[in-house]
Amino acid sequence: MGKKTEQSRITYNKMALEYDSSPEGSYTRAHKAELIKKVVVKNGDTILDVACGNGFLLAELSKNAKVNAFGVDISENMIAVAKKRYPNSTFLAQPCFPLSFENRSINVITVSCAFHHFEQPQGFADECMRTLKNDGVIYMAEPYFSPLIRWIANMAVFPFSHNGDVRVYSSKELSTFFRTAGFTKIQTYIKDTILFFEARK
């Protein structure tokens, strides 16, 4: 486990029980709302929410169809909360890379406000290509910073942060990871402070 991944595990273990009322929980609420609005699921789909936290996003998406719902998160305490709240879904305490799922076994992957914590972003994009079925989709909602603020965060803040933040990305940078992994159908847009990303296999 890398240094930043371990920092993320410690950070989210500490806030797991009070996440919803925390500043972090408040900040990420809009990201989840955008995903709930945009993610398309059908009866019989297998959904994987990566960095699922306390399970809220996965539970909301599971209301839209009869799905096989899985969530993974590096924080054992977050997973414990998710299991207690949403017993009809399967939650696993494990990192985002590598993913412990079979080749071409998932229809939809979601990531809410967490990709900037991933120490191996290209590796994760490659894992999405491996595990998604043909026509499968990865949806992400990430923080959007202006170029100047993004540079300050990446160069002067995150290297010294102990919360597990690695790097925030532009739309072009996100798209490059997934094009390199083999995705060709990519869409992005910016809404207020949210960078929405969608890539179809």
Can you tell me about this structure?
- Helix content is 39%, strand content 24%.
- It has helices at 3-15, 23-38, 56-62, 76-85, 121-131, 147-157, 171-181, and strands at residues 46-50, 68-73, 90-93, 106-112, 132-143, 185-191, 194-200.
- Helix 5 (121-131) links the parallel strand 4 and strand 5.
- The chain is globular and about 45 Å long.
- GO terms for molecular function: S-adenosylmethionine-dependent methyltransferase activity.
- InterPro entries: Methyltransf_11, SAM-dependent_MTases_sf.
- Residues 48-139 form the Methyltransferase type domain.
Percent strand equals 15-25%
The residue-averaged pLDDT reads: 97
For the largest beta sheet, what order do the strands appear in spatially?
3-2-1-4-5-7-6
Termini Cα gap: 28 Å
Number of domains: 1
CATH class: Alpha Beta
How many DSSP helices?
7
User: Main beta sheet: strand number and arrangement?
Assistant: 7 strands, mixed
Any low-confidence stretches, pLDDT <50, length ≥5? Answer: none
C-alpha geometry = globular
Protein name: Methyltransferase type 11 domain-containing protein
Domain Methyltransferase type: 48-139
GO molecular function, one term: S-adenosylmethionine-dependent methyltransferase activity
